Amino acid sequence: MKFDVLTLFPEMFEPIKQSIIGKAIQKDLIEIQLTNIREFSKDKHKKVDDTPYGGGAGMVMMPEVVYDAYESISDRESAKVIYLSPQGKVLNQDKVVELSKESHLILLCGHYEGIDQRVLDEIVDEEISVGDYILTGGELPAMILIDSVSRYVQGVIKEESIKEESFSQKLLEYPQYTRPEIFHEKRVPEVLLSGHHENIKKWREEKSIEITKQKRPDLLKK
Ligand code: 4G1
User: Fold this and answer.
1) H-type helices in the chain, by residue range?
2) Ligand 1 mean position to 138 CA, how many Å?
3) Where are the chain's structural domains?
4) 189 C-alpha vs ligand 1 centroid, how far in Å?
5) Which pLDDT tens digit goes with each residue over 4-26?
6) Do the domains spanning 2-157 and 160-221 agree at the CATH topology level?
7) Residue 129: CB within 6 Å of ligand 1?
8) pTM of the full predicted structure?
């Protein structure tokens, strides 16, 4: 799976190359290609934004630089272009699974007050948001998308983990414990030490439902 990212701040993507995603890149299961939109500015000062027509605060990313950056991507015709934007549908696990079936995604990150609408109309296939709050740019949302989608690429994580997830879909996770058996006078629940797999499964299902009811009742209603 290939992710092409169009951004003014490619350095922001360094931290995602750690841990599980880092290993997936090393194993060539996923590829993250960063394109700095600023490199496509024809202006001597590498200007990429300008004041909005009609007035108002802030700056708008100019259409030509964004378009030229997009045009520099190879095989762009067969890729799906996603604009990370508060105007998109909010990302959920069903959408994550759907996107993991694509082989090439181009992720466009806005900054400042956003991007000139004309280039968006021309190149964007889908808008996706990561939630309803104000951010300074689409870079963190793009990383959230890469992280969540990459987990579903064959070989990135153990298949059991995915199966366990789909089984407990829409429920929160049961509590986890590891060594030591006693920590600050608190014991690990007895059933987890019993080796009785059926009882353990039942206990975990009950805990999942109980915790979801307590903390996220909205998930149970869905
Ligand atoms: C109006 C949030 C503006 C923000 C209403 C989630 C937010 C990209 C996302 C904004 C962004 C609300 C996202 C806002 C995002 C241009 C550059 C848009 C940054 C920008 C609720 C600023 N998921 N926000 N505007 O945050 O890109 O993907």
Assistant:
1) 19-26, 63-71, 93-99, 117-123, 139-150, 159-167, 197-215, 217-221
2) 7
3) 2-157, 160-221
4) 43
5) 999 999 999 999 999 999 999 99
6) no
7) yes
8) 0.97
Ligand 1 atom nearest to CA at 129: 23
* Protein residue closest via CA to atom 25 of ligand 1: 134
CA angle 108, 34, 114 (to 5 degrees): 25
pLDDT the model gives residue 159 = 86
Q: What is the structure's pLDDT at 164?
A: 79
What pLDDT digit, counting tens, does each position of 26-48 carry? 999 999 999 999 999 999 999 99
Ligand 1 centroid, distance to 113 Cα (angstroms): 9
CATH architecture under which domain 160-221 falls = Orthogonal Bundle (1.10)
Query: Is residue 7 within 8 Å of residue 142, measured between CB atoms?
Result: yes
DSSP single-letter state for residue 14 = G
CATH fold for the domain made of 2-157: Alpha/beta knot (3.40.1280)
